Amino acid sequence: MNNIYQRINEVRKAIGYVQKDKDVGFGKSSYRAVTHDAVTGMVRAALIQHGVVIVPSVVTSEFHQAELVTTIGDDGKERTAHAKQRLYEATFQIEFVNMDEPTDRIVTQQTAHALDNGDKAPGKAMSYATKYAILKLFNIETGEDEESRYQQDEFDIVGAVDYILASTSIAELKMRYSQRYKLAEDAKSKDAMKAIIVAKDKAKKAIETEMAGQA
């Protein structure tokens, strides 16, 4: 009877390159991505054939408090409200189990983030973590460079920029910029990081101009 490592190797032999199956973003920022369903569909038959069961579970999780965002309406009045989306951050344990000897297993951990204005963020994050655990363990080629970008549909770039531009002081700007840039950096979204830097410089110039006018 094969152990879990031998079974993993048999699954590797049975699968190959997974095709990108989803268009994400728009315009110059659009790209093709590999979804959780595509990866699962590719490996499912081989997992069943070789008796490997995937068991995901939550290790730690946190829903970050929605930020207060101040905007200026067409009438010139400031309005403060909670951001529409909240960030969910979790670490998942993804176990690959020998179904004939359940104590024989490979255990990995993946950290994932998701933004959502409803109740879908935990599911998004678990799907993301499970997908990448499968891709890495089975050495599946996708042709995508996850080192250079994140699933941009899960990062609210517009909201981050608006939040920074609403800063009313240099101290507040530093705090807001630091928060949003860290999130974009963790999400590996280069487009978001660039947009946040541009917004920070624009907000800084506006605040300094206003302060000079008051002097």
Primary descriptors:
two-stranded antiparallel sheet, alpha+beta, 3-stranded antiparallel beta sheet, 215 residues, 7 strands, 2 domains, single chain, Enolase-like, domain 1
Kindly describe this structure.
The chain is α+β, with helices and mostly antiparallel strands and 215 residues long. The chain has 2 domains: 4-152, Enolase-like, domain 1; 155-215, no CATH class. The protein has 6 helices and 7 strands. The chain has helices at 4-14, 36-50, 121-137, 157-165, 170-186, 190-214; strands spanning 22-24, 31-33, 52-63, 68-72, 78-82, 86-98, 105-116. The strands form 3 sheets. It has a 3-stranded antiparallel beta sheet with strand order 3-6-7. A two-stranded antiparallel ribbon has the order 1-2. It has a two-stranded antiparallel ribbon with strand order 4-5. A hairpin with a 6-residue loop joins strand 6 and strand 7 (105-116). It is elongated. The N and C termini lie far apart (81 Å).
Summarize the structure.
The chain is 44% helix and 25% strand. It is of the alpha+beta class and 215 residues long.
